[in-house]
Amino acid sequence: MTMIFDNDLLAYNQGLELYEKQKYGPAKEKFEDAIAVIDDQNSEISANAHFYVAECALELFHKDAEFLLKEFIGNYSSSPRVEDAWFLLGSYNYRKKKWEKAIDYYNELQISSLVEPRKSEYLFKKGYSNFMEDQLDEAAGLFYQMDDQTSLYFAPGTYYLGHINYEQKKYATALKSFLSLSDNELFGPVVPYYIVQIYHFQEDFDQVIAYGKPFLEDKDVKRRSEISRVVGDAYYQKEQYKQAVPFLKDFMKSRVAKQKEDYYTLGYALYQSGKYDEAAEQFSKISYSEDKLGQSALYQMGEAYLKAGKKSYARNSYRSASRLDFDSKIKEDALFKYAQLSYELSYDPYDGAIAAFKEYIDTYPSSARSEEAYDFLVNIYLTSKNYDAALTSIEAYDNPDVSLREAYQRIAFNKGVELFDNHKYKAAISYFDKSISYPQRKSLTSRAHYWKAESYYYQGSFAQAVKAYEEFIYSPGAALTPYFNLANYNVGYAYFQQDKFLEAPSWFRRYTSVRSEKDEVKLSDANLRIGDCYFMLNQFDGAQIYYSEAVKIGKSDPDYALYQKSMTAGLLKRPQDKLIGLEALVKDYPDSRYLDAGYFEIGRTLIALGEDARALENLNKVVKDYPGSSYVRRALVSIGQTHYNAGKDGDAKATFQRIVKDYPTFEDSREALIGLKNIYIDKGDAAGYDEYVNALGFVDFSDAARDSLYYEGAETQYFDGNCKESVEAFTKYLNRFEKALFKLNATYYRAECLARMGQTDEALKDFEFVADQPKNKFTEVAVLQVARSAFAADNYLGALAHYKRLSLIGEYKENLLEAEIGQMRCDFKLENYTSAISHATITLESEKINNKLENEAHLVIAKSNMMLGSDEEAITYFEMVIDKGATGQAAEAMYLKSRILFNADDLDGAETSIFNIVEDFGSESYWVAKSLILLSDIYMTRGDLFQAKATLQAVLDNYADGGEILAQANSKLATIVGIENQPVESEDEEILIDFEALDELLAPDSSSTNTPADTLENE
Predict the structure, then answer these.
(1) Domain locations in the chain as residue ranges
(2) 624 burial class (0-12, 13-18, 19+ CB within 10 angstroms)?
């Protein structure tokens, strides 16, 4: 820069001084002042002044800077400063990242006219602009021309040249560039990533390891985690899997975005290193990928789980792999292994083994393993507990061979027994018939006949039961079964239930005549039933013999046996024997339900023996100690008659009047009214009797004859079994007589018929009326019917009240048991858990409960304890139900036990429990599905999305009943899919040096003119 010593150009020189001091604002003003006084605007000094004005504007970020430079070029095209102006315009747009404009301005320069350091700056900046415009070949050509190794632009140019060659897969050339930068301060930390990648692309895995490993200890090296991945993959390619694992793991810990191949590579390396659980975890992360890699990952996950001994997990993996079509070999092998594992595992919720082996045989009939698959299939038929699936599969064969026919016979029988255990008797019969239709094994055919008969019996089809029992008894091989003699007992009961008292005894005697029979309870009961039959046939001598035998054995209702023996003695005119028996009853069985009857009959017997005082003592005991008993009214009648016969009219009258007051119906008061009538007549006070009777509100004797006539007609229809006619007749009777003499009887009988006709609402009204009356002979049954109806209508409070009343007034064991059961159920429904436990406990103490009821009571106790927070106690009772075997109740119990274990974070225990549900109760589809959904929760808690997803998919694929089960499974599956689809947070470390950092580094070397100041450094 040259100063001109001319006083007229003082302003120009002052501008140069300020320019050199980088005071661009004042300098610009001085240059503008100089332009104003220069006479020759075409002179060199005028051109220079205009150039400096434009350059100062550029340094000051003035918006017109670019315009001023272009104006200068246009006005002074022959000035030596034009080259500087073009360079400034290019560099200005370079800094503005206006790459295309920068290229255009740089194109105005001739590289041959440039010298260092501007030449290197020009080549780099123009090359970088081409690079940013994706003009890679042009950029590479410019970077390649940079030969001044002393320039600050040389290293960046070399770097970008290497990068372009790397991207264009010119690895040898790129490697040369990157290696030359290894010691560069800026690029030294960057190039190792490129270098190891290039060695890897060249499959020089030893060099990858040798070169890359040292850099993994350098925290400043760029993309260290990715270098670790490349080193790990080099070991992987050399099949040195154990050495590969730590490097691959190091990469997977980083926040760098992962590819599906990364998970697969680490998974396979872990698998080959014997770390099977870890391997499966990696494979599972890409198990959702529906492509060849995803199918391979599923298969390898199965292999890993199999090696780890987790066969159930492996099976799910193989199943998923077999459903994809990207690799046919994997598909076939996965299907076979899935089928094989389903066979080996007791845990096979939907009997996938049957379908899988059949699918394998059908799809790959020429496979070397098809025969093996068929052998497996036959064995599955014989061992499967999913009987329906097995039967359906066998039924698909047109001509099943002997082995399949034998399997079918056994499976159908087992299905029938399962249905029988679940009290589904009609369905059970159909399966026993299927078993009988394949009579391959005689002993099994006999057993099918027996259980078919049992099914008929328990569904109340007693005539059909008799026929089926006889088919069993006379079938070949029946005598060798443990049911042979029991069938005699059961036939006896089937006749007994039909009131065929003539036919029943011979069958019970067959049972008792077998000397080898050891079941004393049934022997005692059989003798009781024979006695009952003879009793009903008025053959009291025979009845006495068998009741005596029942008393002697004493194992089944001994108090009832003694009572009946005593009553029979009375009918045989042996009052002393009757009295001895009854007194033994009240003495030896203080908790008997027959005590009220016993004391009453003792009283009656003593009256017959003329021992009135003792008789009254026993009769009064009935009235005092058993106020809710139906024998109270009868005892009062006997007391009143005894007083009357003894001439104690006052006592007799008071007693009879008490009866009329306490039992205000004609039917219940008839005997008392007769007694009162006799007392009044004996005193010659017939008018007094009429006055007394007319004052009664419940009876109208003025129309008694017609009343009785109407009633008897309706009653005849009832006892003839003509319900429709009897309902009409009873209704007419009750409507005709406002104070009907037989209102209670008529209402009860009408209720019975209405119930039989299915008119439950109308029947309930009549039962409620009867139940609300003072204690009568119908009260117990009426209260029971009202309680049942209320429970069926979900009126648990109302049902509970009536069941409680039944427990207080009931006399029959069966009804008292139902009262406890009803209270148990109502209390549980009403969340009165402590009370529910109490009634369930009482229910369990009954001798008459069956397995189903016992299980229900245990379930109520268990679930109540569960709701009360007593989990250990709950599990104890759940296990009692579970121990009873394959029923829906046991499946529910095991499911709820699993829930308790899950909520207690005992995931392993819960998982094992669920596996047991599937193994032991596979036919309980609802509880199996509920359990599998819970199993998916276990897998989710463990973070195993694949197993959770596979488990839910099994429910969706196989559960046929819909409802809340499928809705819940779909909801949970959607949650898993949502988790899988969530983007993984990642931070890719930029390998290219960013523009600002590069520009800042290179700024000191930038030069637009021959001055030492960089015209862009202050921009």
Answers:
(1) 769-884
(2) exposed
Amino acid residing at 463: A
Q: In 3-state terms, the chain is what percent helix, strand and coil (to 5)?
A: 75, 0, 25
Contact 158, 177 (CB under 8 A): yes
Q: Please list the alpha-helical segments (H only) found in 498-625.
A: 504-513, 520-536, 540-553, 558-571, 575-588, 595-608, 612-625
Q: Yes or no: say if 194 and 163 are a contact pair by the CB < 8 Å rule.
A: yes
Phi, psi for residue 914 in degrees, rounded to 5: -65, -40
CA dist., res. 636 & res. 616, Å (int): 10
* Joined tokens for residue 30: 């001085």
Residue showing tokens 């106790």: 861
Secondary structure class of 894 (helix, strand, coil): helix
CA distance 172 to 145: 19
Nearest to 332 by CA among 352, 311, 310, 362: 362
CATH superfamily entry for domain 769-884: Tetratricopeptide repeat domain (1.25.40.10)
At position 605, the amino acid (one-letter code) is T
- The span from the CA of 383 to the CA of 919, in Å, is 11
pLDDT in tens, 946-1001: 889 989 998 998 888 878 999 999 999 999 988 888 776 655 555 566 555 566 55
Short-list 858, 872, 935, CA closest to 900: 872
Q: CB neighbours (10 Å) of residue 758?
A: 8
The per-residue pLDDT for range 420-439, each reduced to its tens digit, is 988 899 999 999 999 999 99
List the end-to-end C-alpha distance of the chain, in Å, as a whole number. 22
The DSSP result for 704-769, as a single string, is: HHHHHHHHHHHHHHHHTT-HHHHHHHHHHHHHH-TT-TTHHHHHHHHHHHHHHTT-HHHHHHHHHH
Q: Which residue has the tokens 């036990």?
A: 897
**Residue 773: both structure tokens together:** 């009356």
* Placement of tokens 């064995």 in the chain: 379
1004 burial class (0-12, 13-18, 19+ CB within 10 angstroms)?
A: exposed
- How far apart, in whole angstroms, are the C-alpha atoms of residue 329 and residue 322? 10
User: Which long-range contacts (C-beta less than 8 Å, at least 24 apart) are formed by 766-775?
Assistant: 770/744, 771/802, 773/665, 773/744, 774/662, 774/663, 774/664, 775/628, 775/630, 775/632, 775/633, 775/663, 775/809
Instruction: Using the predicted structure, report yes or no on whether residue 635 has a pLDDT greater than 80.
Output: yes
Chain centroid to Cα 130, Å, comes to 62
